Amino acid sequence: MITKPATLKGTRDFLPHQIAKRSYLFDTIRTVFQSYGFAPIETPAMEKSETLLGKYGEEGDKLLFRILNNGDFMEGVDTGASSASIASQISKRALRYDLTVPFARFVSQHRNELQFPFKRYQIQPVWRADRPQKGRYQEFFQCDADVVGSESLWHEVDFIQIFDEVLTRLGLKVFTIKMNNRKILAGLAEVAGHSDRLKDIAISLDKLDKVGKEQVILEWQSRGIDQEAIEKLSAIFAMKEKKSTEGLRALLAHSEIGLMGMDELDQVMAHAKALGLQSAKLEFDITLARGLDYYTGAIFEVVSDEVAIGSICGGGRYDDLTGIFGMPDMPGVGISFGADRIYDVLDQLQRWPADMMTVPDIIFMNFGEKEAFRCMQVMKEMRKMGYAAELYPSPVKMKKQLKYADDRGIRYVGLIGGEELSSGKITLKDMQEGSQESLELDGFKERMKRG
Amino acid sequence: MITKPATLKGTRDFLPHQIAKRSYLFDTIRTVFQSYGFAPIETPAMEKSETLLGKYGEEGDKLLFRILNNGDFMEGVDTGASSASIASQISKRALRYDLTVPFARFVSQHRNELQFPFKRYQIQPVWRADRPQKGRYQEFFQCDADVVGSESLWHEVDFIQIFDEVLTRLGLKVFTIKMNNRKILAGLAEVAGHSDRLKDIAISLDKLDKVGKEQVILEWQSRGIDQEAIEKLSAIFAMKEKKSTEGLRALLAHSEIGLMGMDELDQVMAHAKALGLQSAKLEFDITLARGLDYYTGAIFEVVSDEVAIGSICGGGRYDDLTGIFGMPDMPGVGISFGADRIYDVLDQLQRWPADMMTVPDIIFMNFGEKEAFRCMQVMKEMRKMGYAAELYPSPVKMKKQLKYADDRGIRYVGLIGGEELSSGKITLKDMQEGSQESLELDGFKERMKRG
Fold first, then answer.
1. Which of B24, B38, B49, B70 would best serve as a mutation to test chain A binding (most A beta carbons within 10 A)?
2. Residue B111 to chain A, least CA–CA distance (Å)
3. Taking CA B343 as the corner, what is the angle to CA A384 and CA B147, rounded to the nearest 5 degrees?
4. Cβ contacts of B210 within 8 Å, gap of 6 or more
């Protein structure tokens, strides 16, 4: 029976030229992470269901890919129950949904093998049962760096520099690192007399860019925020406009947590600016809220100002990531690069470097067994010099062999026929320049350096 | 509620020092694959169930990890059916079991975007619901290279060179590439008068090393191979002993396919030996059978002669890998490196290189805000020079900071206190040599080069 060859919706194959681009992206991120002292870890794709369930809210639970138990999994299952209840009976494994929860599990599990503060980075795929659509996949990579076991704000400064360094290296010229502090938002809720309604206030505020001021106020009203509070909160709109903290200290004067957030923000901003940034604009954005679930201090978001595609990086500080795994009081801060979006940005702006190798440096034409064997000997030496070389596998017509070299975009073609066999030379065709020359193997390296 | 932090049985976390080793392994394999003209591809972890089911035999089907459909997956399901039948109703996705079937699916799906012969390599994890035990995991990496669309035996020669090059680079000193040809086995079955019983003959023969000659004969008998055939086949035992093809041509004189296999074997062996191998012994092994399911020509297996751990690499030629996906007559040949086993071999032999970086080159001690800021400036310059540097995040007692540097095995410690702030110098402590010196930032690079 013939199976139709097709990937699942929401998943992708990567062809060589795509892998080349992605490797360049990952390598750049990896190199910068390492230069700041971060070390790589990896965790399994499959985690125990109990490790992941309940960590991403009710919606998140629904988006987990769960793995069927093997063997006679239906034995003893109450088939009258709901799908959700049956799922927990027939599935004890699930696929990683992000890198944060597995990292918290990792730190808790290996606490005695690690030195704290522990700085790790992790570049691995994650899986989400989101409805597939343009730019949204069910399998995609995350690139995270976190420090746990430290409250020092120098890490925030490091992360701002890392955003700047990675994106500059990747050739982004105009981008903005937006920054806020969760304690400032908590302070705003406090001075508005709604300490318990931080989430409601922030969720609506986060939409300001999209829906406008009037809509935010309407939403606050419908969420039960009273008029007096709304009047106090309205000072925010002017701050948003000015991208400035002017007046914020006065507004937060009676909120201890709010002022603490201001101090943190000012300190990080001042240090980052004094150290200097290459391409990034660093801006305060009072409406920035992000997923408020575990962030407790600084929050970050990076947007490209050249391509409208939403945030390309994010991150923030948390007080207690590992408490759920029985390891309390482990503060930390981390960031994430959205590899797929950055890939799309570089594609749109055509900012990929020119020299990303996906094909060998040279391919030899095949004129028969004796000639081919000589090519094999020559290629062996070329590989020792660091070049990638291959032989067209069979002695078919030259035209077909040359077309293959051309179709693959291989620049140099090596020819060893009867004449070269006796002279010991190689004829080298430069497909790009359309030139041809005869040289000794010793001269090959020089020729390649000349380009 | 607190969740106990634990990985699933059969899966592993990788700590930084393990990632460093594994990256070195993968990078070596990748570099050699590329030098022979292979290009990287990746396929999704999740494939349609129909792509994988039935491709690995009945046992394989049971070892697939299948993914539960999302939403109300039980709706309309006949709950009275067997677990196997229910599985196919509630799961339309499964995790990749190897890299070969997804590759066949990839080639068939993208045939119009590829140039043939197509040479790809792929280094990705696979998942199998095997019972976990020492050295056997449910999630592990495979490192494959294949050429499809070519019958040329030069590829076999390339692959022998690749085995030799990769394992030599990794520091293996004594290992054997065993080689056989499926056509020779078919020829033996033919001359024994049991062309249809190739599988029975080969499966028993494959156990010769483990169980001995007498047991193999007993097994043949129990599989219904008659006495006359067994007498003919017994010539094999002497050949196995001598590791030689002597007498094989005579034995196969009346089998066309057998003689073809001999020709292929001789040609590949002769070319590989004439080109020369660095560390590998290349041996004919008439008992080598491997999974006979799709191999049709050369078969390979590599064993370490220093560590008894079974085969560390394998591979072979096939006539028709993509036929199941509606793309017939696509011959090819491929190999696979068993990364986990090679990792274990290198661990046992302690052949890892000494300089695998998992920690930064230098860590700066933290004496307070002003000093730390100067460290941040200095580190920025050091990173531009290509060094990895970090700051101890908070100004705690020196002893604690130094212990942290020591525990992590960071060789150089940078000190910028009040004195250095005014002199503009850095005090550099070499934790390995126990020495200390004062230098300018400009002198740092020179000092690091000296080591």
1. B70
2. 10
3. 55
4. none
A31: left (phi over 0), alpha (psi -120 to 50) or beta: alpha
Residue whose pair of structure tokens reads 């062309």 in the numeric block? B195
List the B295-304 sheet strands across, edge first: B39-40, B118-127, B139-148, B332-337, B311-318, B295-304, B175-181, B280-284
Name the residue type at position A380. K
Closest CA to A180 of A82, A58, A314: A314
Q: Nearest C-alpha of chain B: how many angstroms from A186?
A: 25
Non-local (6+) Cβ contacts of B291 within 8 A are none
- Distances in Å between the alpha carbon of A334 and those of A33, A103, A146, A313? 12, 11, 4, 11
Backbone φ and ψ of B316, nearest 5°: 170, 175
Domain boundaries of chain B, sorted by first residue: 16-349, 362-450
For residue B234, the Cα-to-chain-centroid distance in whole angstroms is 35
Mutation choice for A interface testing from B1, B9, B12, B15 by most A CBs within 10 A: B15
Determine contact: B34 vs chain A, CB below 8 A: yes
Residues 6+ apart with CB under 8 A from A107: A114, A118, A148, A321, A322, A325, A327, A330
Whole-number Å distance between alpha carbons of A298 and A282? 13
Strand partners, A46: A95
| Burial zone of B417 (CB within 10 Å; 0-12 exposed, 13-18 middle, 19+ buried) | middle
pLDDT tens string B89-109: 999 999 999 999 999 999 999
Strands (E), A346-407: 362-364, 389-391
Q: Class for domain A16-349, per CATH? A: alpha beta
CB contact residues (below 8 A), chain A span 236-275, against chain B: 271, 274-275
Q: pTM of the prediction?
A: 0.95
pLDDT for position B242: 83
Cβ within 8 Å, pair B19-A39: yes
Is it the case that residue B294 has pLDDT exceeding 90? no
Contact yes or no for A19 and B7 at CB 8 A? no
As given in the structure block, the two tokens for residue A170 are: 């990747």
CB A217 within 8 A of CB A230: yes
0.90 surpassed by complex ipTM: yes
Q: Which residue has tokens 């975009």?
A: A409
Interface contact flag, B154 A68, Cβ < 8 Å: no
Residue B199 in contact with residue B263, Cβ under 8 Å? no
What confidence tens digit (pLDDT) does each residue in B256-274 have?
999 999 999 999 999 999 9
CA–CA separation, B107 and A196 (whole Å)? 57
State the nearest Cα–Cα gap between B226 and chain A, in angstroms.
Answer: 35
Regarding beta strands B412-415 and B435-439, do their DSSP bridges make them parallel or antiparallel, or are they unpaired?
unpaired
Phi, psi of B311 (to 5 degrees): -75, 140
- Asked if B5 lies within 8 A of A86 by C-beta distance, the reply is no
B152-171: average pLDDT: 98
At B263 the pLDDT is: 97
According to CATH, what is the number of the domain B362-450?
3.40.50.800
